[in-house]
Every structure is written in structure tokens, then in C-alpha cells.
Specification:
The complex is a heterotrimer of chains A (267), B (352) and C (401). Chain A has 267 residues and is α/β, with parallel strands linked by helices. Chain A has ten helices and ten strands. In chain A, helix 3 crosses helix 5 and helix 3 packs parallel to helix 6. In chain B, 68% of the residues lie in helices and 4% in strands. In chain B, a hairpin with a 2-residue loop joins strand 3 and strand 4. In chain C, a hairpin with a 6-residue loop joins strand 1 and strand 2. Chain C is 67% helix and 4% strand. Chain C is built from 14 helices and two strands; from the N terminus they run ααααααββαααααααα. Classes of the chains: A alpha/beta (267), B mainly alpha (352), C mainly alpha (401). At the B-C interface, helix 4, helix 5, helix 12 and helix 14 of B face helix 6, helix 11 and helix 13 of C.
């Protein structure tokens, strides 16, 4: 894995002294970092460090108590969630939230519909515009299913897919929204080592075709293996930021994890 | 909750033909409207407690609660038919009957609430059915219960008991009184220019006592703690040894008992009931629960009182026929302005 | 669970499943064409039969004691309502318990425009009625669709009641006496509706002698909307139903349908995937209002007279029962549900009193044993079939071991 990736890329997402308090609890405390365009950034930390909170505030689920978040230079405060997706941030869910009664293809097409400009009247009268948009959406969806490797399952119900295929479908669906930044929330949870290797390949391919990726993960080997840079949180604070090699040797990080190097088969 | 054609008017209003002086109306009868509104609101509050308890623990709107209330009103009516004096009388003369009716009403409503839990909800809760299905089941239970009461004449016919029970079952869908017993209010002392009656006092005091009792039960007893535990986190509660099925049953039972009390007080003031009386009252009580903050017991009390008083003021201003509309307008306003209710919701977890 | 309880539940469950299996196997036996042309021909046949139904007067299903055409009209009216409510409940997952409100707004707009205060012709009043109802749907939905879904049920129930209260106590709308003399749609042909009215006559069949023969006493004039012969009304409404089915299908198989399904499945996830859920919920509401108002308008013109007693919350509950029993999410299920709810009480008139009790119990049984209804939505069927296949496969494995 390259540790000499250009880190001079433009900042796509900026967290600027972000603090979030829930009642008496401070979930994030003055956290600042950037995600640069074209990189794969890992967000790690022990349980309860605030990774999911950080994730949620970046995708608009939570509002920051203080501080600012900017995407592509634009502040994200108070935007509705679907508008944030339209801006270019897509995510998957830690506990897989597919639309279970819809087919795999339909799931992805929901994502593709984000940028659709046709509405109910076009649908009702089956205007040429509608037909073009539908055909384009379906084609894009099929391509994405192929890209993640489940093209054979396009017409199966999402709930009938295997666990691994469901995770891939989530990624395909997120990609269908045409994002600039793809946020993956523990995408390897429940995978065996072989599946994790496949996932790492997929994540690299995603980056290689131009997406920026943010990755929350617990598996150190995966994180070290696929990311360009890593941000480490502990108790809501950022305690380290750097390349995988730097992080691996960082004493504060080691202390936080108590033996990250021995974590050979963490999953 | 099948509908009523309209509940009897229970607000006292001076009749002025001149619409222009409606506000004057309001001011003149201010004390009457307010105190009677509080009495009315106390009844709403007791019914609202049932809704708010169940929603707080299960996130479920118990549509059948309105029928739980309705069965209580019939229990009270039947007791009066059975042992009441059968004529115009005063509160002092029927204290014994009233107490029996009060207890009977609470027992009846409590039992019906347990039946509802067993038949309409238990399996669905266990299978974690989606809330749409649970609501549909609730509606089915509500319709069934209401229709059973409405068809009681025909049903008692099957058992050949129609004649024996004719006082209790004939004209099943009509307004049903208390067997000729009418409890006339006795005026006691004045507040402002309104002579508060013994019935007003009994209703308000009884309601307050019931609510204090419930509050104590929920806050201080083992069962109450169990309820709050199950509301917050059913799994942890189970790990702590809380039997959540028992807790759910208890929740329904408590709501039923409150509704039974409300039913008896309602009959004391209004004197008549019908198989579909639950519908409008249930809607209003739920509105009261939402206004106060769903899941919040004190909120149910506050919401009920506010609704009762607002309804009276509203009917003075725009006419009694629009009385029912006041509740719905208030509901929409609250949802627009402060959906979590005046005193805030009390649900287990913070909801996104 | 007690053995008696298990036995009963198994009995009910197998009963419903057998009903479904029998009808499915009968359906499977019917030769279904694979080609587009074959399918089209089949559909045409089905539609022709539907139109001819009141003329044929089939023995077993024809109602005694009430005019079959009239009953069929009500069936179609309810079927239309059910399709509309299916969009709201089945597609978008919004529990609307006050659908009668839309029905009433449509009926009363027509009544007001054609009889009470003006004298517009029906077909001019119809689009206005539909628009007014849609506006009311949007006004109702805008504040209430933002809050927690559970509240929606209560608020819509309240809406239905407010509408009923308004029409009962507003003199301008006829108050408790209602609105009379609502005109029928204009008839086609000379001298309607007298004995020589209409362009031509259409015969009815009678089975009095055990085989079909032309009934000399009954004929339908084409196209005369009169008080006695309801058949032309039925044809008109059936045409409306067909158009609505087509529209429903077109809309469902588009991004709108996908957005509805996603919202219903997991509203938060849908939002995150870029679906503006509030907008689509409102759209579903508006569509439901459109269809409800449309059916209400036709109700008014057919009856000629409307009063507040026709628009009770009980009717809302019957509408909901129709959709759920038929199968929420499946437009054909909704149609079957609507037809059943309208037809059964008429066919078995003696049991009119018991009608609501039966529906209440039906709802309870259904939610416990078969929440997906008689005809489940397509996706549920596939999921169930997939599960069955897995069971079969597992069965084979067990043998091998």
C-alpha cells in the first residue's frame, strides 16, 4: 500500500473544531481534520471514541453544537439529509439498511434516482424524457451491480441475498447516488479474511475510478492495508493523524488500543 | 373507535341570541365554563393516562382503549339499573351505589384492557410486528368490542337470556341511561359567580386521587420501576429479571383501571352512554395525551385539563356544535408548533 | 401457547392459505399467454366480461333483494376508493384513518356546484371537486406528515371527523338535511330518459329457466343516466376504474413508486439515499385525495342526494379494512377487498347488522395470522416463495445426511 500518496490534494470535507454535546455528554470535543480529494481516509478509535457520531455529523444526521463542517467549501449546517446526499456525500450503514422488500436492482435505482429530473407527470404519460431517464438509471444500476460483483443477483430481493452480497449492494446503492465522497461504516463487519481481502480490492477500485472514501473500521489489518491516511479518535478527541506507518508507531494510539500490533485476527 | 353521532352537551351556557356578544358570554360564564371545564378535563385526563401509559411502554396507540372506557360506562349504568333508586335523586342518597359502580367500572375496564392485550397485541408484540399491523389489529379490536356491545341484544338471544336481561340489553344501539336514576347536582358554594356543585367536586377530587395514586405507583413501586425499565430498554430489563410480558399486562391493566374510573365519573355527570361513545372521547383523550407530551403522566393530566377548559371556552365562542372540532384543531396546532407536547415526551430512548 | 390456541390458529391459518392456494391453482390452470398480443387479448376479454356483468345476471352471485347493477356500482366505487387508499397505506406506508374526509369533500363539492348553490353540469363540477379534494389533502398533509408516523393515524381520524362535523352544521352545505337533486351525468341520445331514449337498446339475460335467454322485461338504453337503470352509471365508473388502474401501474413502475417503497421500508435510510421523503409522502397523500374525491363525486351524482350520515368514521374503517383484507400494496388485492366489502353485505342482507362485527373480527384474525392479506404485494409473495424453496432445499439435504 502506498504511503507516498500525494497529500496535497484539495480538501473535500473539512471538520473545523467540531464539538457535539448531548445533554451532559460530550461526544466530540474540538475535532478538526480534512478529507482530501481522491484519498482513502480511515477513521479509527476504540469503542465509544465517537467515530459513529463523527460519521453522523458529517452526513447530516446530527447537528454540531459548535464548529463547522464544510463540504467542497460549502457549510453543511442545517441542510436536510437528502440535500446532503445530492451535494455528493453517500454512506453505507453499519447494520445494513437495505430496502428489504425491493430487488437488488431497485435498491440501486433508488440511489440513481437522486439526480433524476422526471416526476409523476412524466411517469404518467411515459414521456420520452421519462423513458430515457429510466433506461439510463437502469443501465447505471446494472453497471454498479457488476462493479461490486453481484450482477447475477439483480432481480433477487435484497432480503434474500447473502450477507456479503448485501454489504456489496449497500455500496452499489451508495455509489448510485453519484457522490464525491463515499463513507463506509464498518463495511467489513462479519466478513472472513478472504472476504475482507475482496472488500479491500473493491475499496481500492472505488478510489481508483475517482471517488474519495472515508472508512470506519475496527479491523486494523484492513485499515492499515487500504487507507492512505488515518485519523484516530479517543473519548471524542482526535489523538493522532497520519499515514498508516506513522499511526502504527504512535504511542498514544498504541496506548488507546492496548496492543494494536497483536490484533492479527480482529474482526 | 366507531363514531358517536355526538355526545350530550355538558357545558352550561347562557343563551344569548346575539352572536356579537360572544366574548361577553365567555366573560359572564367564565367561572362556570372554567370549573366545568376542569371537571370535564379531569375525565379526559384519566382516559388519556391509558393512552400515554401504553404508548410510553410500547410505542403503540391503543385504539381499543376507547372501548375499554365504554365498557366501564356500561358497567356503571348496569350497576345503577341493578341497585339504583330509579328516580331523580341527589348524590348523598346514592353514595353506596356510586362506590359499587366505581369499583365495578374499574374492574370491567381493567378486564377488557387485559383481554385486548391478550387477543389483539400479545402475539404481535412478541413477533415484533410492524407498527402498521399493530394499529390495524387495534382497530379490529376496537370495532369488535364496540359491535359486541351494540349487538348485545342479539347475542343474549343466542343464550336465551334476552328476556331475563332485557333491562340490560334491549335497544342495544340506543342511548342507554342509568335505569331512571338521575343524580341531580346540589349546589354548594360559590366560586366567582358560579355555584360549584357536589358532582363537580366529586369528579375533580376523585380524578386527582386516582392520578396521585398512579403516579405513586409508577414512581415508587417495583412494578412501576419495571414499567420504566421496559419502556427504556426491553432487553436490558429482561436481563435484570423483569418479566416484560407481565409488565405489559400491568400497563394495560392500569390504563384500564384509570379509564374505568373516568367512565364512572363520566356517567355521574352525563348520565347516558352508547356503544360508540368511546370514539369521540378516545380521540379527545389521545389529543390530550399528545398535548401534554406522550408518555408523560403529568402531561396527560395537564393536557386533559387544558382540553376540557378550551373546549368549553371554544363552544361558548363559536357554538356548542363545534365543540368537538376544538380538540382536533388543538391537536393540529400542537403538532405544528410543539410536537413533543407541552411538558415534553417521556419515551425510553431519545428519538431521532 | 395453549394447544387449543395453537389448534385454532393453525386452523385459521390453513383456512386462509387454502383459500389462497385454491384460487392460485385455479388461476394457474387458466392458460395465460406469454406474448404481448396474447396478454392484450386476454385483458380485452376480461374487460368485456366486466362490462357485461350486470347484463348477464349470473345466478349464484347475483344479489336478490337489491339491484345487481346498483350493487356492482357500489363495488366499483369502493374498489376505486381502495385503490386510492392503497397508494397511501400500501405503497407509501401512511396509515390514513380519515379517508372518508376526502370522499365527503368530493361529494359535497359536486353537490354544492351542481345543486345547492349553482347549477353546473356534472362533468364540469367533477374536475373542480377533484382539485378541491387534492388541495385539502395537501393542506392536511403538509403539517402532519412531518411528525411521527403514529400520530398520522389519529390526525387523519380527526380530519375525517372535522369534515363530518363541518358538513353537519354548516347551513351553506345543507347542514343535517344534506343536498338533494344532484344531477346525473348528461345522457347521450334523443329523448332521454323516456321509453324511446338513448341511441340503442341493450338486452339483459335471465336464467329463470335454468339457461340463459333474453329477458324481455329489462333493457338498458345506451347511454341514458336515469334513476331506475343503473347500468350506464356502472359502465361509466368501470371506465374510471380502468383508467385509474392504468395510471396506478404507470406511476408505481417509476421513480415515484420506488421512492414510495423506499420511504415505507426505511424512511431514514431513504432520506440518506437522497429520497426527499416528505415530498413523496405528500404526493401519495395528494394522489389518495384525488382518487377519494373522484369516487365521492361519483357517489354524489349516482345517489342524487347526499347527507352527513353517509360519511361516518365507520366508512373510513371499512375502507381501511378493504385494503388490508385484500392485501396492502397490491392494487388487485385492494380491488378485491373493495368489492368484497361492498358486495358481501348486500349478498347476505340478513346479516347487515353483523357486518361491522364481522369486519372487526376479520381484521383481528388477519393481523394475527395473515397480515399480508388475501393477495399479498408482489415482493412478499416472492419472499415467501424464496423461503419455501430454501425449505425444500434444506429438506433434501437432511435426506442426504
Amino acid at each position: 500500500m502506498s504511503s507516498d500518496v500525494v497529500s496535497a490534494g484539495k480538501a473535500l470535507l473539512e471538520l473545523d473544531h467540531v464539538t457535539i454535546k448531548f445533554g451532559g455528554l460530550t461526544a466530540l470535543d474540538d475535532v478538526s481534520f480534512d478529507i482530501k480529494e481522491g484519498e482513502i481516509l480511515g477513521l479509527i478509535g476504540p469503542n465509544g471514541a465517537g467515530k459513529t457520531t463523527c460519521f453522523n455529523v458529517m452526513t447530516g444526521v446530527y447537528q454540531a453544537t459548535s464548529g463547522a463542517i464544510r463540504f467542497d467549501g460549502r457549510p453543511l449546517a442545517k441542510l436536510q439529509r437528502h440535500k446532503i446526499t445530492k451535494l455528493g456525500i453517500a454512506r453505507t450503514f453499519q447494520n445494513i439498511r437495505l430496502f428489504r422488500s425491493m430487488s437488488a436492482l431497485d435498491n440501486v435505482m433508488v440511489g440513481a434516482d437522486v439526480h433524476s429530473k422526471v416526476g409523476i407527470l412524466n411517469a404518467l404519460f411515459r414521456t420520452p424524457r421519462h423513458r430515457h431517464t429510466e433506461a439510463a438509471a437502469e443501465q447505471k444500476a446494472r453497471e454498479l451491480l457488476d462493479f461490486v460483483g453481484i450482477s447475477g443477483r439483480a432481480d433477487e430481493l435484497a432480503s434474500n441475498l447473502s450477507y456479503g452480497d448485501q454489504r456489496r449492494l449497500e455500496i452499489a446503492r451508495a455509489l448510485a447516488t453519484g457522490p464525491k465522497l463515499l463513507c463506509l461504516d464498518e463495511p467489513a463487519a462479519g466478513f472472513n479474511p478472504a472476504e475482507k481481502r475482496q472488500l479491500m480490492d473493491l475499496i481500492r477500485r472505488v478510489r481508483d475510478i475517482g471517488y474519495t472514501v472515508l472508512l470506519i473500521e475496527h479491523d486494523m489489518r484492513l485499515v492499515m492495508g487500504v487507507t492512505d491516511r488515518i485519523v484516530v479518535l479517543e473519548f471524542g478527541r482526535k489523538i493522532a493523524e497520519g499515514t498508516p506507518a506513522e499511526i502504527r508507531d504512535n504511542p498514544a494510539v498504541i496506548a488507546a488500543y492496548l496492543g494494536v500490533e497483536e490484533d492479527a485476527d480482529a474482526s | 373507535m366507531p363514531p358517536a353521532a355526538g355526545t350530550p352537551d355538558d357545558a352550561v351556557r347562557p343563551d344569548t341570541g346575539d352572536r356579537g356578544s360572544l366574548v361577553d358570554d365567555l366573560i359572564h360564564s367564565f367561572f362556570a365554563l372554567t370549573i366545568q371545564g376542569i371537571a370535564l378535563g379531569a375525565v379526559y385526563a384519566l382516559i388519556a393516562l391509558g393512552y400515554t401509559l401504553v404508548y410510553g411502554v410500547l410505542r403503540l396507540i391503543n385504539f381499543a382503549h376507547s372501548e375499554v372506557f365504554m365498557y366501564g360506562t356500561f358497567a356503571t349504568a348496569w350497576i345503577f339499573v341493578l341497585i339504583g333508586p330509579g328516580k331523580d335523586t341527589h348524590l348523598g342518597n346514592v353514595v353506596g351505589v356510586l362506590i359499587v359502580a366505581f369499583v365495578a367500572s374499574m374492574i370491567m375496564s381493567g378486564l377488557i384492557a387485559l383481554v385486548v392485550e391478550r387477543i389483539a397485541y400479545r402475539r404481535l408484540i412478541r413477533n415484533r410486528a410492524p407498527s402498521l399491523i399493530m394499529l390495524i389489529s387495534a382497530i379490529g379490536a376496537s370495532i369488535t368490542l364496540s359491535e359486541l356491545m351494540g349487538q348485545r341484544a342479539a347475542i343474549s338471544d343466542w343464550f336465551g337470556l334476552r328476556d331475563n336481561l332485557s333491562d340490560y340489553v334491549s335497544h342495544p344501539r340506543d342511548t342507554y341511561g342509568m335505569g331512571g336514576t338521575t343524580v341531580n347536582p346540589t349546589q354548594l358554594f360559590k366560586i366567582g359567580d358560579y355555584r360549584i356543585t357536589d358532582i363537580d367536586i366529586v369528579v375533580i377530587v376523585a380524578a386527582i386521587l386516582m392520578m396521585v395514586g398512579l403516579d405513586f405507583f409508577v414512581r415508587k413501586t417495583k412494578f412501576g420501576r419495571g414499567m420504566r425499565a421496559v419502556a427504556q430498554d426491553p432487553e436490558s430489563a429482561a436481563l435484570m429479571g423483569v418479566n416484560s410480558q407481565r409488565i405489559v399486562q400491568l400497563t394495560f391493566l392500569l390504563g384500564g383501571i384509570m379509564a374505568g374510573a373516568a367512565a364512572c365519573l363520566y356517567m355521574l355527570r352525563i348520565g347516558v352512554t352508547k356503544p360508540n361513545v368511546g370514539f369521540i372521547l378516545g380521540l379527545k383523550a389521545f389529543t390530550a395525551a399528545v398535548m401534554g407530551g406522550i408518555g408523560n403522566l403529568r402531561g396527560a393530566l395537564l393536557g386533559g385539563l387544558i382540553l376540557g377548559v378550551a373546549e368549553n371556552y371554544g363552544s361558548a365562542l363559536v357554538g356548542t356544535q363545534w365543540k368537538d372540532a376544538v380538540a382536533f384543531v388543538l391537536l393540529i396546532l400542537i403538532l405544528l408548533v410543539r410536537p413533543s407536547g407541552i411538558l415534553g415526551e417521556v419515551l425510553g430512548k431519545a428519538r431521532a | 401457547m395453549s394447544t387449543a390456541g395453537t389448534a385454532t390458529s393453525n386452523l385459521v391459518r390453513s383456512g386462509l392459505q387454502s383459500f389462497h392456494d385454491v384460487s392460485s391453482s385455479l388461476w394457474a390452470r387458466v392458460p395465460k399467454p406469454k406474448t404481448k398480443k396474447g396478454k392484450a387479448a386476454w385483458i380485452v376479454v376480461g374487460v368485456v366480461i366486466a362490462y357485461a356483468l350486470p347484463l348477464i345476471n349470473l345466478p349464484v352471485i347475483t344479489t336478490t333483494g337489491s339491484d345487481m347493477a346498483s350493487v356492482l356500482y357500489d363495488c366499483i366505487g369502493y374498489a376505486i376508493v381502495a385503490v386510492g387508499l392503497n397508494i397511501v397505506i400500501g405503497y407509501a406506508g401512511l396509515l390514513d384513518l380519515g379517508y372518508v374526509g376526502f370522499y365527503a369533500v368530493g361529494a359535497y363539492t359536486v353537490g354544492t356546484l351542481t345543486s345547492e348553490h349553482w347549477h353546473w353540469p356534472f362533468f364540469l363540477a367533477l374536475p373542480v371537486a377533484v382539485v378541491v379534494t387534492m388541495v385539502s389533502g395537501v393542506l392536511l398533509g403538509a403539517p402532519t406528515l412531518r411528525v411521527r408516523g403514529d400520530y398520522l393515524a389519529i390526525v387523519t381520524l380527526g380530519f375525517g371527523e372535522i369534515v363530518r362535523i363541518v358538513i353537519t352544521y354548516t347551513d351553506w352545505l345543507g347542514a343535517a338535511t344534506g343536498i338533494k337533486a344532484i344531477p346525473a351525468p348528461p345522457s347521450i341520445g334523443p329523448n332521454p330518459p323516456g321509453p324511446d331514449g338513448g341511441l340503442f337498446d341493450i338486452a339483459h339475460l335471465t336464467w329463470a329457466n335454468g339457461y340463459p335467454e333474453v329477458d324481455p322485461t329489462k333493457k338498458t338504453q345506451f347511454l341514458v343516466f336515469g334513476v331506475i337503470d343503473i347500468v350506464p352509471f356502472y359502465w361509466l365508473l368501470l371506465t374510471v376504474l380502468v383508467l385509474i388502474i392504468v395510471g396506478d401501474r404507470l406511476i408505481k413502475a417509476s421513480r415515484v413508486g420506488r421512492a414510495w417503497e423506499a420511504t415505507r421500508e426505511d424512511e431514514d435510510a431513504a432520506e440518506v439515499m437522497g429520497v426527499p421523503t416528505f415530498k413523496y409522502k405528500l404526493l401519495a397523500f395528494a394522489m389518495g385525495a384525488f382518487i377519494g374525491g373522484l369516487s365521492g363525486a361519483f357517489f354524489a351524482t349516482r345517489q342524487g342526494y347526499i347527507s352527513p350520515t353517509s360519511f361516518t368514521a365507520m366508512l373510513s374503517e371499512m375502507f381501511v379494512a378493504a385494503v388490508i383484507i385484500g392485501g396492502a400494496g397490491n392494487r388487485w388485492g385492494a380491488i378485491v377487498g373493495g368489492v368484497l366489502v361492498a358486495y358481501l353485505p348486500e349478498r347476505f342482507r340478513n346479516f347487515a347488522d353483523w357486518r361491522m362485527l364481522v369486519f372487526g373480527i376479520a381484521l383481528l384474525l388477519l393481523t394475527t395470522f395473515r397480515p399480508q392479506g388475501i393477495f399479498p404485494a408482489r415482493a412478499t409473495r416472492r419472499a415467501v416463495r424464496a423461503e419455501q424453496k430454501i425449505h425444500e432445499l434444506e429438506g433434501e439435504n437432511v435426506d442426504v445426511i
